């Protein structure tokens, strides 16, 4: 774990970074620390073990914070941009008892940094369209596939090395006696921004996962963010985000299995 000096995280809001790669591993595998050196086999071997392990840690914390038995989890959504094998990751943290049918599972791989919003959209629909559902969402990312030596010509590659891992439980109609939602999910959607082609790219190569971030990404987002907010709040009855009297949020769910408004309980590694 690296603790940043005071003031170094003023813009990023990051105070601590947790790193798996230590001096011993880097000395044994020097190619990982090079900017562009073949190293995929080593990276893949690390990820095959560590991605499921990190996912389990986050899931255990989320379930403990939720305070209910894990067999009440009905759906599992797992996402990672770091899993480089076809076999599904093991899920011992949320494995149901043998007498309980296993969860409905959804796996999202290689989706980029937008996947956090994607899994929330999926979990929201699952929770609201399946009465009593409790959806465990686990995002597990690992810097072993992106870590490399810095290059003055490719500073944007450093951005891809600061992602984190999280687990959250999504449900509808919380039990007021035992469940305390952190927040409600009113709406979840995605937008393709104009002129954003090739603005953010990820390439998986023999040297690892290469991250490219165009210098104009902040400008591209800034041009569209106001309109996106208006479009997000209009279904609630007001472009300012304050619902008008008598208005109700627009919900995309099957009315035959209406499960109420989605809420979230969170744990983080």
From TrEMBL:
Highest taxon of the lineage: Eukaryota
Q: Which InterPro entries match?
A: Chalcone/stilbene_synt_C, Chalcone/stilbene_synt_N, Polyketide_synthase_type-III, Thiolase-like
- Documented EC number(s): 2.3.1.74
Q: Where is this region: Disordered?
A: 236-269
Query: Does Transferase appear among the keywords?
Result: yes
Give all residue intervals belonging to the Chalcone/stilbene synthase N-terminal domain: 10-174
What Gene3D superfamilies has UniProt attached to this entry?
A: 3.40.47.10
Which GO molecular-function terms appear in the entry? naringenin-chalcone synthase activity
Q: Which UniProt keywords apply?
A: Acyltransferase, Flavonoid biosynthesis, Transferase
One GO BP? polyketide biosynthetic process
**Where does the Chalcone/stilbene synthase C-terminal domain lie?**
184-238
Top-level enzyme category: transferase
Q: Does the keyword Protease apply?
A: no
Pathway named in the protein's UniProt entry: Secondary metabolite biosynthesis; flavonoid biosynthesis
The record's function comment reads: The primary product of this enzyme is 4,2',4',6'-tetrahydroxychalcone (also termed naringenin-chalcone or chalcone) which can under specific conditions spontaneously isomerize into naringenin.
PANTHER family linked: CHALCONE SYNTHASE, HYDROXYMETHYLGLUTARYL-COA SYNTHASE
**Family, as annotated:** Belongs to the thiolase-like superfamily. Chalcone/stilbene synthases family.
Q: What's this protein's name?
A: chalcone synthase
Name its species: Musa balbisiana
